[in-house]
Amino acid sequence: MNRRNTKQRxxxxxxxxALDHPSAEEVxxxxxxxxxxxxxATVYRNLNLLAEQGEIGRVCPGExxxxxxxxxxxxxxxxxxxxxxxFDAPMAPLFSPVQLxxxxxxxxxxxxxxxxxxxxxxxxxxxxxx
Amino acid sequence: MNRRNTKQRxxxxxxxxALDHPSAEEVxxxxxxxxxxxxxATVYRNLNLLAEQGEIGRVCPGExxxxxxxxxxxxxxxxxxxxxxxFDAPMAPLFSPVQLxxxxxxxxxxxxxxxxxxxxxxxxxxxxxx
DNA sequence: TGCTTATTGATAATTATTATCAATTATATT
DNA sequence: AATATAATTGATAATAATTATCAATAAGCA
Lengths: 130, 130
Prior knowledge:
2 copies of one chain form a homodimer.
Chain A: H1 7-18, H2 24-34, H3 40-52, E1 57-59, E2 67-69, E3 77-80, E4 86-88, E5 108-119, H4 121-128
Parallel strand pairs in A: 3-5
Antiparallel strand pairs in A: 1-2, 3-4
Chain B binds a DNA duplex through helix 3.
């Protein structure tokens, strides 16, 4: 059950670090440039594995495909509702989010996420251009 | 383009109100009990339409299918990572979430969502039972 | 160098949802 | 009430994103 260092896995990890919140498809495209015969399933598998092992982050947008993140520290995101692009939110993680909650009725909170939704500069510009 | 009050649409709206954060599939199952020949596409279409018109809420969980919500006021959710069930979070909506953000670099924030992730009472019990 | 087994690539399968389109039906108009 | 019209429906195909399957390959230890 020991993890092995394959060329494919390295390429996937590098792609996530080189790209900005890429989707699996975008990672696949980038990796394919370096090694055109890499399989798509291999990309998905490695993204999952790297995320599980905490080497990369995973972002679950309210809409659209999963994104991956070179940052692994706790932070929040802003999603453009027009182009779907994900940005890091300039906001410190809440110190003790569970304290914001009242009686959860026995629900054990382990984690939390915040997503800001709106328009990125480029898409906002487009809405005012007509 | 005027909206019409069909029996199917009413059944979908009623099902969302009767169920607790149901998925489209769960709404379909409930509605099918009342009218067994309702089409699945009709359920999806009406959920989208009712959500767009603000008659029901839509919840986009970090994992799993979309959920629908009889509540339409701003509130947050807790999701059980084991069973996927969605609960209302006992937390008042942030008064001015944009004030929590620093310089967004021109990103226009319009909305935000918070999801707490953890274990619901039932699933937590199961983890301690062995 | 050879062995074991994690990993791969190709592809099928799955899940959730939307698009298509002819038939139906709610509602305004006559 | 009869008619017109266009919103809506149901069936089904299509799509998108992801996971499962499985024989072949290759990483890394003995």
